[in-house]
Amino acid sequence: MEPNQVNADKYSLKAMLLTGDMVTRFVFGILLIMSAASWFIMFTKWLDQMRLNKQYLEVSKGFWNAGSIREGISRMKGKDHAFKMIAEDGLRATEHHEGRLTDQIPLHEWVTLSLQRSVDQVSSNLNKGLSFLATVGSTSPFIGLFGTVYGILKALTGIGSEGQASIDKVAGPVGEALIMTAIGLAVAVPAVLGYNWLLGRNKRLLELLRYFNADLHAFLISGARVADGGGRTAASAPRAK
Questions:
Q1: d(CA 193, CA 174)
Q2: Quick one: CA torsion of 52, 118, 200, 40, rounded to 10 degrees?
Q3: Residue-wise DSSP of 102-115
Q4: How confident is the model at residue 132 (pLDDT cuts 50, 70, 90)?
Q5: How many angstroms separate the CA atoms of 52 and 202, rounded?
Q6: Fewer Cβ in 10 A, N or C end of the chain?
Q7: Rounded-to-integer distance, Cα 176 and Cα 158, Å
């Protein structure tokens, strides 16, 4: 092995972990866990968004062409169908607007509250985990910096106790310590980018949910669907019963 390669191996991540103490390994372990959790959340949230977008396309093609609301609901297949849950809650609200408490609330307000509660639940599920990405993006650089400061302090303490301050004695430990800052940034950057990307896609999907919610609310109350951007009107809406 060449001398340059030997020197490079001395200052590598592997060498840092082998020669580091429990604090160094603990900081590295925290950053590794944060990185793995961030990638897992980003992947699962992306799958959730793809599933919700697919559900919207299916609803656009099948639900509003059904003969009735119940028939349209029966066409929605799959587990955890967000639009099916909203439609079922809205239909249930119109059929059970009765009792001493609900009689005091107009039907349109009762349906609005029910549908809004369903949309809020879907929104909460979509945004679940994004706060962790934001936390990782804001804290992992500081965790890496802590590892760097600790490593430099440890290196300088060792150099001071030995009484030797040559370039070789200083550059090696300091270079190893700086690896922690690089790892912290490597964890933070994907988390921040993933957070912003997922948040933007969530906003678009929530708009689609609100469009469906508005159309369903209008139909349940008046029997007519709000015209959308494509020019479709209440004529294509399913019947209530």
A1: 30
A2: -60
A3: GGGS-HHHHHHHHH
A4: very high
A5: 10
A6: N
A7: 14
pLDDT, tens digit, 9 for 90 and up, residues 88-116: 877 777 766 555 555 556 666 777 777 88
Strand partners, 82: none
User: pTM of the predicted model, to two decimals?
Assistant: 0.76
Residues near 176 by beta carbon (within 8 Å), at least 6 away in sequence: 11, 15, 16, 19, 20, 151, 155
